[in-house]
Amino acid sequence: MQDIKAILREKAVDSTLTAKGWVRTKRDTKNAIFVELNDGSCFGNLQCVFDANTIGDTVRGQLDRLNTGAACAISGRLVASPAAGQPVELQATSAEVIGEAPVDSYPLQKKAHSLEFLREIAHLRPRTNTFGAVARVRNQMAFAVHSFFQERGFNYVHTPIITASDCEGAGEMFQVTTLDMDAMVKAGKPVDYAKDFFGKKSFLSVSGQLNVETYCMALNKVYTFGPTFRAENSNTTRHLAEFWMIEPEMAFAELPDNMALAEDFIKYLLGWALDKCAEDLDFFDKRIQKGLVQMLDSVRGSTFAHMTYTDAIKQLEQNKDSFEFKPFWGCDLQTEHERFLSETVIKGPVIVTDYPKEIKAFYMRLNDDGKTVRAMDVLVPKIGEIIGGSEREYRHDVLLQRIRDLGLDEAAYWWYLDLRRFGSAPHSGFGLGFERLMRYVTGMENIRDVIPFPRAVKQADF
RNA sequence: UCCCCUGUAGCUCAGCUGGCAGAGCAAGUGGCUGUUAACCACUGGGUCCGUGGUUCAAAUCCGCGCGGGGGAGCCA
Questions:
Q1: Which one, of A344, A353, A348, A367, lies nearest residue A294 by Cα?
Q2: A156 and A72: one domain?
Q3: What span, in angstroms and rounded, lies between the C-alpha atoms of A31 and A27?
Q4: Among A75, A107, A139, where does a domain finish?
Q5: I need a surface site. Which of A173, A360, A400, A461 has the fewest CB within 10 A?
């Protein structure tokens, strides 16, 4: 059986076929009954037309039960459509209800629903135009990620999801345990993690970076792409407790190589979306964010601006009246600063580099000035930070000193330091939040609407 | 964690300084040159989030609780 995408693409007029899917809407007139069928294979529906004067009682009985949301099979002959709106349609002769969707209880109606409402019915929202399109684009973007790296000789490395090391340092972690909390509370005894599953306290990983660096020092070009967990109490349109992150890492690569990779990567992904998801992007352009396609297309053909943190601060200081938080050298860039740089100063993506070491992670390569590190953030309009990365500190003594200066537990980093003791080499990488990419590509504002089942503070339904 | 907004029909919302519960869409019925966010007419549809208080009278004012949204911080 052909899916609707193939039927609409091949337009095999005069062929007899059966289409199965879900009813989006049904319209009655005196002489004709129109059923819009969607099977998720593409954005478009197959319009099925029944001649009200010639269909028998059996078909009419089935049509009476075909409400919005019902699953059904419709057979007939494909014809060129006499009306505007669709090149072909199904001249239907039979209809079979496979699964009803009673109108008095099915939550989705043939009208627009708010994204907030649809979030409450996450099990049904993929049946809407918006979330069907999001799902298809998400699928294409995931495939594009692998395609990009595979074409360039990167090896996909599966870094662990559970970690017993407390040294990832990228945020609050979810604890993983098989200990019986209720029993321990009842007994009033202190927790003995030696009795826990791993014999020590363990967590869900907040980043695969430290682990993937080990493979980078063996295979050179590597990347991870998997779920990541942060137990931050953050409630925003751009944070999730469970999200997917892509982290490439390259050996013998310095910051400029890293910046070039990030730029190529973003442009490749946008180009892929434009090429493979045109129909879905048209919808986002029309209903979600006007001008989206044109914006993506112009970014695809652009050259990303580069700016050091020091220059960025100078730019911000010249416009300090527009900010709630006054910028100064050494301050962390606020969201309003990041957006000003990409939206007003550059009017497009910008890579900011060489941040003060105090506001960046311990593993970033220290510059010769002793004050800044070779960090880079890719900032894009509307979204803000979409990529964060750096050249890594590969000098053993410098890294060790950084760990000590920050009061970190150097014993916990023994294997990470070993990478710098044996065959160390400059290397660089970055992290791209997959859902932030999805927000950028689709124009969807809330990150909870670009992942099938969002996990956030006080939200783990479905 | 902090700040702001919000909760009324299936959905989106209006309901003013307290005085009979409303609209659009959806649904049902009927109509209608092939419609496409169909159209026209009629009809049904309510624990005004919960709880306590003020009052002759509370959807409306006040306290508490719960839910939703936006912003900030943290970051991807």
A1: A348
A2: no
A3: 11
A4: A107
A5: A461
Q: Is the CB of A25 under 7 A from strand B?
A: yes
Is A135 found in the same domain as A86?
no
Where helices occur in A277-382 by DSSP H, the ranges are 278-283, 292-300, 309-318, 335-339
The mean pLDDT of A279-308, rounded to a whole number, is 94
Pick the closest to residue A305 from A257, A266, A352 (CA basis): A352
Interatomic CA–C1' length for residue A321 and nucleotide B30, angstroms: 65
Work out if A142's Cβ lies within 7 angstroms of strand B: no
| Whole-number Å distance between alpha carbons of A126 and A172 | 31
A28 touches strand B (CB under 7 A): yes
Residues A140, A242: one domain? Answer: yes
Phi, psi torsion values for A198, nearest 5 degrees: -95, 5
CATH number, position A294:
3.30.930.10
Domain membership flag for residue A355: yes
Same domain, A164 and A236: yes
Overall number of domains in chain A: 2
Assess whether A386 (CB) lies less than 7 A from strand B: yes
pLDDT in tens, A411-455: 989 999 999 999 999 999 999 999 999 999 999 999 999 999 999
- Neighbouring-strand partners of residue A50: A33
User: What is the per-residue pLDDT across A212-237, written as a single tens digit (0 to 9) for each?
Assistant: 999 999 999 999 999 999 999 888 99
CA distance A288 to A309: 33
CATH number, residue A28: 2.40.50.140
Q: Minimal CA–CA distance to A168: which of A346, A413, A343?
A: A413
Of chain A residues 82-101, which have a beta carbon within 7 Å of strand B?
A: 82-86, 89, 91
Spanning CA of A288 to C1' of B6, the rounded length in angstroms is 23
